Amino acid sequence: MNMQTTPDEMLTVKEPAMEEIKTDVLVIGAGSGGLSFAAGASQMGADVTLLEGHKMGGDCLNFGCVPSKALIAAGKQAQAMRTGQKFGVTPVMPEVSYAEAKQHVHKVIETIAPVDSQERFEGFGVRVIREYGRFVDKDTVEAGAYRIKARRVVIATGSSPFVPPIPGLDDVPYETNETIFDLMEQPAHLIVVGGGPIGMEMAQAHVRLGCKVTVIEGGKALGKDDPEMAEVVLKRLRAEGVEIIEGAQAERVSGAAGAVTVHTSQGDYSGTHLLMAVGRKANIDRLNLDAAGIKHDRAIRVGADLRTTNKKVYAIGDVAGGFQFTHVAGYHGATVIRPILFGLPAKARTDHIPWATYTEPELAQVGLTEAQAIKAHGKHAVEVLRFPYHENDRAIAEGKTEGLIKVMVVKGRPVGASIAGEKAGELIGLWALVLANKLKIGAVAAMVAPYPTLGEISKRAAGQYYVPRLFENETVKRVVRFVQKVLP
Fold first, then answer.
1. Average pLDDT of the residues in 37-60
2. Radius of gyration over alpha carbons of the chain, in Å?
3. Do 178 and 315 belong to one domain?
4. Which of the 8 DSSP states describes residue 18?
5. Is 21 helix (H, G, I), strand (E, B) or coil?
6. Would you give the DSSP letter of residue 87?
7. Is residue 51 a contact partner of residue 140, using CB atoms and an 8 Å limit?
């Protein structure tokens, strides 16, 4: 018996065998959409496997919605100390510890994290594997040491900050939403490239925490919102000290840590720190989508039913393109429960999806803006109902009188609502309900709102629909005068 080993045999290393898993549904990504689906499907009896190669809870919990709102809250506390004079409270300059404000952010994340934890979802019966996944064929995904074959696959990998290929940017340190919340050193002067919701929220939070802030935007700041409503917010931010440069395309970046310059078509702007906030890109690079026959460009192509070109695979949330909001991902996750678990048809709508920018004042929208409604239905078919915050008693009492609401109505039915003002993100929920259920304006006009609340703003706006029909109508007046004469 020959016990010698040849050199070729010595060089041959056997790959460990991959563990085979068969599952009803494989969910790729443990953000809002993936977790919503996984929890519901598992509790309804499906065998669910969930892959997550990074952090449970995804972008929203760890780098987006949650930390940004926590930092905004810290900024509000600082701002309240500066602005008490009108209430008889002597204003003082707050002593801000930027590092402690960031510690507050991380405490908030830690408090919410158990809701999205691996342990909680394993408690629901979900098999959780902490690996990235890649397709090897139409219904098989490899993830680490696992080879997973699924009857259905839900891709919920979300999105990441898009960093444009600006010359010089690779040689200069910069922050994105994935790194800014770990920055403990207070920026003396923060340059924000991008005047969308993320950029404006971070700009106001930082200026309130004692930083100098310059926002550079290639187009119009908050350009996706109604211009009249956006101006309410921008006026406040400028008044608080945020420098907003519009129509200034970033052409080149230079400098080093602590001294960064953004060269634009309108001039050069220098600061100590740079935040890139120009948009998002779908996380599709790791997935090997072509192997599964899934068509894609910058995002995965889906139909109204959220199904991809591979009939066994669905895509939900940011990775499917369209609205990039956490609540949309959750809505998508609930939507695909119906076809995947019960074989029943379901389609995702977009006309009732609200969104909000959490500056102060807030900016919120659902459905069509005024311009969009006029374009879709014609100028003469659209009635725009308006009501200002400065006529609301609660807003007056709290000194929050900036802003207004606009409701776009076609044939008695709201098709959109725009709100700029205090708690706009809370108030827009009523109008999302109206649009989701295709209610008429009378449903809101008939509502009895508690007094005094900001909620009365919505009711008063709805009431404007009846002003020309009841109070400015000569026929109504003649009928009333006649009835008053004949009544005993």
1. 97
2. 27
3. no
4. P
5. strand
6. G
7. no
